Amino acid sequence: MASMDGVRPYTELRDAVARRDRSLRSKTMSLADAADRVFDGESLGIGGSMMSRTPMAMLWQLMRARRKNLVCSRPIITSEGDLLLGSGMSRHVITSWFSQGIMWGVSKVMRHYVEKGLARYDEWSHLAIGMRWRAGAMGVPFMPTRTMLGSDVLTARGETHVMQCPFTGEQILLVPALNPNVAIIHVHRSDIYGNAQIDGLPFMDIDLAMAADRVILTTERIVSNDQIRRTPDQTKIPFFCVDAVVEVPYGSAPHECYGLYEPMMKHLQTFTDLVNDDPIEGMKAYLDRYVYGPASWMEFLELIGMDEVQEAVGRARDLQND
Amino acid sequence: MTKERDYTDNELLSVLSARELKDGQVVFAGIGIPLLAACLAQRSHCPGLTILFEGGVIGASIEPGKLPPSTNDQRGARRANMVLGSSEVLLLMQRGYVDVGFMGGAQVDQYGNLNSSVVNARDGRREIRLPGSGGGNDIASLSNLIVAIKHEKRRFVEQVDFITSPGWLRGGETRNDGGLTHGGTLRVITDLAVFGFDPKLKRMTVDALNPDISINDVRDQTGFDLIVVRDLPVTKPPTGAELRVLRELDPDRMLLS
Fold first, then answer.
1. Is A252 a residue whose pLDDT tops 90?
2. What is the mean pLDDT of residues A285-296?
3. Which residue of B has its CA nearest to A172?
4. Shortest CB distance from B131 goes to which of A99, A148, A263?
5. Of A97, A126, A200, which has the smallest distance from its Cβ to B90's Cβ?
6. Does residue B249 surpass a pLDDT of 50?
7. What are the structural domain ranges in chain A?
8. Domain ranges of chain B
9. What does the alpha-carbon distance between residue B102 and residue B92 come to, in Å, rounded to a whole number?
10. ipTM passes above 0.85
């Protein structure tokens, strides 16, 4: 696959859409079958942000399938980024912020791989990531923006271009379109066709879905098309950009899913203690026990523990109470 | 410092930061002290303050004991006026709807530039990678910025190792010349003093000292020459009411510790 530094040709993007089967058909499948649709060396756009609506189950399955060299983009990367690097699934991330979470300081895993030159972390501003996916979603090669100018975040990014606006003469930054080969997005509800509804914060998922060549959805539940049609205003991603729909309850665990569960902090603490203590051996211990070990996603949830899952559900419900 | 204080450095930092906000403003708040200070202001002298978070929240109204762990999660959206995409909320700054941007950083320099990306290790041979910009660069590029930061010599440097979030760049007109035609660092609040910027040089000035702090205390912890006026005012210490609201907001000392 092409390096993600350049803008992909428009014809290539149009052809990729034209080749897709966009008919109204059931796209439900297992996590394993969905993972088979992601290939080594491809670019992967990851939905949600920070510890919210992270498509954890899909990432977990891709690690189990031993995917390699995926170029991963996400607005803000947290503990899942450690897993991307630690499992060898990625050696190149594109994001605006990368650590385990605000409360854990600086990730030792990120530091180990990035400081030793073992992995590449392309830092953009948060808005610049959004504008790159938006340009990708719009089918244009770049977006003009006023952010990032004058900073070393800009100096470090040779992929950008500062131009004089042809209308006003002002300096304006052009950020290149980012069209990932695959997007993985976790949603609250989808029908079998991929009409997807997201509650709460949509982050940059809608642009990501439109920008990617292929979209794999994991969903807390699959609902009927009639159910979707009762609240079409809640549908955020139309079925024809979706290629796979996988029903995965608690599919963002141990991260959160708006209205359903908050982050599972005890598990995340266990994870950060392990990997910050030893980014290599601690990571290996975590992967063996929690990623490669369990026979299924349900077994992984059992390892987190019903009490902790339920506690995270309780906190999210409590948040809805007045 | 001579007297026993009944507040911590972070509590002082939060209270002084909150005092910078005015009722009716729209403030874009980062996580940590800025979030806490914005919430404190909203629950004291700024009941009409509108708080924005980069996760896509407009009109946050954080309740005591329910602080969000970041500015990108459902907890921050509770009882907000509106939720929308992260790009959309960040673009509100580009369009000019935000009065004040409010954030922290690992390093600040004499021109109010912030670094949260990479610092040189003390041995000078290594670089230490930090998490990065997040929305910090956008807030600094597109709004009038207030910075809340702990005052330590290693944080107050002549020139940041890496400009993550641009202040006045190299001073004078360099920010404007660099293409950033609006915004800029207005204020830096620390546990020692309150700072502003010279209108022409865009270099850091001391505007007021915190209670029981001398200018030499400030100089000792600062790695560059500060512009100091004579007869510096001394900031009033946090009031009992301010401290009470603050401690109610963060009873577990999630952001205060």
1. yes
2. 98
3. B179
4. A99
5. A126
6. yes
7. 10-147+160-221+234-320
8. 9-249
9. 15
10. yes
Other C-beta atoms closer than 10 Å to the C-beta of A193 total 19
- Give the model confidence (pLDDT) of A15-70 as tens digits: 999 999 999 999 999 999 999 999 999 999 999 999 999 999 999 999 999 999 99
Indicate yes or no: CB of B94 within 8 angstroms of CB of A115: no
The answer for A26, left when phi > 0, alpha when psi is -120 to 50, beta otherwise, is beta
Report whether B170 contacts A151 (CB < 8 A): no
The answer to whether the CB of B16 falls within 8 A of the CB of B189 is yes
pLDDT of residue A4: 54
**Angstrom distance (rounded) from CA A33 to CA A294:** 17
Instruction: Check B11, B54, B88, B248 and give the catalytic one.
Output: B54
**What are the backbone dihedrals phi and psi of residue B118, each rounded to the nearest 5 degrees, phi first?**
-155, 130
The two structure tokens encoding residue A282 = 């601690």
Task: Compute the count of residue pairs across chains A and B with CB atoms less than 8 Å apart.
Answer: 182
**Is A202 in contact with B88 (CB distance < 8 Å)?**
no
Question: Which pLDDT band holds residue B3 (cuts at 50, 70, 90)?
Answer: low
Active site residue B242: no
- Between chains, do A96 and B132 touch, taking CB under 8 Å as contact? yes
The CATH class given to the A10-147+160-221+234-320 domain equals alpha beta
The topology (CATH level 3) of B9-249 is Glutaconate Coenzyme A-transferase (3.40.1080)
Residue contact B130–A106, C-beta within 8 A: yes
| pTM score, whole prediction | 0.97
* Cα end-to-end distance, chain A, whole Å: 51
